[in-house]
Amino acid sequence: MDVYSEKKFIFKIIPCPLCGQDKFRVLGEKEGGFFSRSDSTAVPARIVSCLSCSLIYVNPMPFPGRLDSSDIYNEEYTEMLSKSIPFDQLSERDIDVFEGRLRLERMESIIGHRGRLLDIGCGPGNLLVQSIRSGWDATGLEVNRESAHFAREVNKVPVVTGMLEDFEHSWKESFDAVYFNQVLEHTQEPLKFLKTVRRILKPRGVVFCGVPNESCFMNHVGHYYFKFRLSPFTPFLSPTFSPYHMIGFSTKSIRQAFEMTGFEVIEIRNINYTSIGEVFGGKKEFLKRIRIFLGLLARMAGHGYGLDVYGVPK
Fold it and tell me: I need a surface site. Which of 65, 113, 115, 292 has the fewest CB within 10 A?
């Protein structure tokens, strides 16, 4: 395994994190910013697609160097917390509130009851507030110390701080539902993470996993735009700068990951939680109409911006 170090990362050439094959095609380079070509705080990285299973990932893969994973998220994500507001000040139309309610209802419908729920990467605790108020016995796990503090002190929900592997043995078969939204794409070893989730879930439990859809419409548009411009830049992933996305899933690859780790996939939903106005910096009404129209088309075609996955143990 080839290894080299740069700044706070150690880069390792790895086989595909999903299927284990080592042949890939290069999609482009990522140095910083979803739609900018450089960022002084980022480290250049190469984005590839596995020729066997089509998983998108970083190769060489950046692993924490001078800092461990928890330190990186505490260093980079604390600024995001300044935008957090108490749950009771959120609107019912807020995307987190709206989608959170639907996800909780869907998990309950799958197993037929409420029970003990773990929210991995719970952030400020919005989903925890909703779940507790609807009758779940819920606990959060959060790596960012400031977010965990906000959840406990402001939203008044139970949250422990740390990494999932810290609790793997003490939580064995402890939860009726495990919820992890926008978490799996941050892991260098997604199969290991899912196997750990499988071990802490009760035999008749349910999991919810939300991930970005790297095969979404806007990513494809961006990819071919930069190829047309003969630019090495790619819109896929963000490995060495916030939000640190290492793995890019499609409907096919997320299903494969679940099935390889002992889960049966019950449902995969395409969702949209971005806007063209955010992408191009405009907020005019006609951009909103375009966003709605393209979002509907993309979602119907299976290319929405996000994937909501529900699974149960096999």
Answer: 113
CA-angle at 249, arms to 12 and 52, nearest 5°: 70
Q: Count how many residues are written for the chain.
A: 314
What angle in degrees, to the nearest 10, is found between the helix axes of 145-153 and 69-81? 50
At 3, list the tokens: 């290894």
User: With bands split at pLDDT 50, 70 and 90, how would you rate the model's confidence at 35?
Assistant: very low
Q: Is residue 25 part of a domain?
A: no
Question: Crossing angle for the helix pair 285-300 and 217-228, nearest 10 degrees?
Answer: 110
Which helix (H) or strand (E) segment is 159 a member of? strand 159-161
- Cβ contacts of 261 within 8 Å, gap of 6 or more: 191, 194, 195, 197, 198
> Which CATH number does the domain housing residue 101 bear?
3.40.50.150
Sheet containing 3-6: which strands, arranged edge to edge?
3-6, 9-12, 61-64
- Residue 208's SS3 state is strand
Report the number of distinct structural domains present in the chain.
1
Q: What is the pLDDT of residue 56?
A: 97
Whether the per-residue pLDDT at 273 is higher than 50: the answer is: yes
Per-residue model confidence (pLDDT) at position 94: 80
